[in-house]
Amino acid sequence: MGIEIRETCDVQKRVRHLGLQSPGDLSILPRNIGTAASYDELVHESSVTTVRSLFRQEGIQETRIEPDGKDIPCIQENEFSLLLPTLFVGSLILSGNTHLLDLALNVISSYATDFFKGIPGRKKVVLKVVVEQKGKSTCREVHYEGDPEGLKSV
Prior knowledge:
Strand content: 15-25%
Helix content: 25-40%
Shape: globular
């Protein structure tokens, strides 16, 4: 449990291969963007709808990668964890508008805290943030798994 950082696929290349639209400064990626063989295999976490709604309420602009008129289905896990959607952060946001990323992570952190309010016992949140590395053919993935309070460290 905690934070793990690792190299991951070139997201721009993967979205082109899968027939998706190019991600913007802040996008939500399907769970299996790096391993899906085709568009039909892609799935989002079930929390994607809620996170998108919260982003809209806070004025956070997310660039959708789904082609117009198409949706990526959601998958529901049967465990009591909060599996958050994977965020994509473009290289420009890190150099020019880190406030947007801070705001998005604060919205997600508040949502996770509220999600578990009044629920006793162990609470587990899983969040991946994929960061585009300017001029490189790979991205970095920050994988967080732990309690809701630990999200602030991401």
